[in-house]
Amino acid sequence: MKFTAEIDVMPQKEILDPQGKAVKLGLHNLGIDNVADVRIGKHITLQLDAPTEADARAQVEMACNKLLANLIMETYSYQLANITA
User: Fold this and answer.
1) Which of 27, 45, 62, 83 has its CA at 20 to 30 Å from residue 6's CA atom?
2) Over 90: is that where the pLDDT of 72 sits?
3) Where are the domains of the chain?
């Protein structure tokens, strides 16, 4: 079966996000003053083959935990969709 995983990796709320602060300042300079906070993260799309959804989830979890996210500073979430026709 073929699956697509849409993964979002974001800095933890307690971690300073200098890129987000720079974007917030840029928005302010554009006259957009009603933005309370900006957090910048990563969006990753994986397409993978796995015999079951549980196997696909296990592979995505391993990829996130060991490679895609730095769990000391980041959190992740994902959506998994079966794309087998």
Assistant:
1) 27
2) yes
3) 2-15+41-82
d(CA 78, CA 16) in angstroms, rounded, equals 23
Degrees to nearest 5, angle at CA 43 with 37 and 45: 160
Give the pLDDT score at 54.
97
What's the length of the chain?
Answer: 85
Whether 84 has a pLDDT exceeding 80, the answer reads no
* Residues 20-45 pLDDT 10s: 999 999 999 999 999 999 999 999 99
Q: Phi and psi at residue 20, in whole multiples of 5°? A: -65, -40
Q: Per DSSP, what are the bridge partners of residue 77? A: 8
